[in-house]
Amino acid sequence: MDKEKMKAEIMKQLEEVNDPELNIDIVNLGLVYGVDLDDEGNVQITMTLTAMGCPLAGMINGLVTDAVKKVDGVKDVQVNIVWNPPWDKSRMSRYAKIALGISD
């Protein structure tokens, strides 16, 4: 599988990972900032959380790792949680905003 197809499959798997508090997937919440994939199948996910000091950070990290490892060709997964740029509701998809009752 080529890199672009793998990245698309990784994003599809990440759409299955819900934020435990909001019950919306991390992709539609806008928490995933980037997916980097090297030629050996090592993946680095750059993402943030809705709040600094989130008590569920470890759980979300594990869910992301498990989801990405389901993609054929993935050997290793590293989750890099960043705080810059900070997350805000403008990063959310229209679907997530509707589901949470947030207007633009």
From TrEMBL:
It holds the Pfam family FeS_assembly_P. Residues 7-80 form the MIP18 family-like domain. Signal peptide: none annotated. PANTHER family: FE-S PROTEIN MATURATION AUXILIARY FACTOR YITW. This is FeS assembly SUF system protein. It comes from Lihuaxuella thermophila.
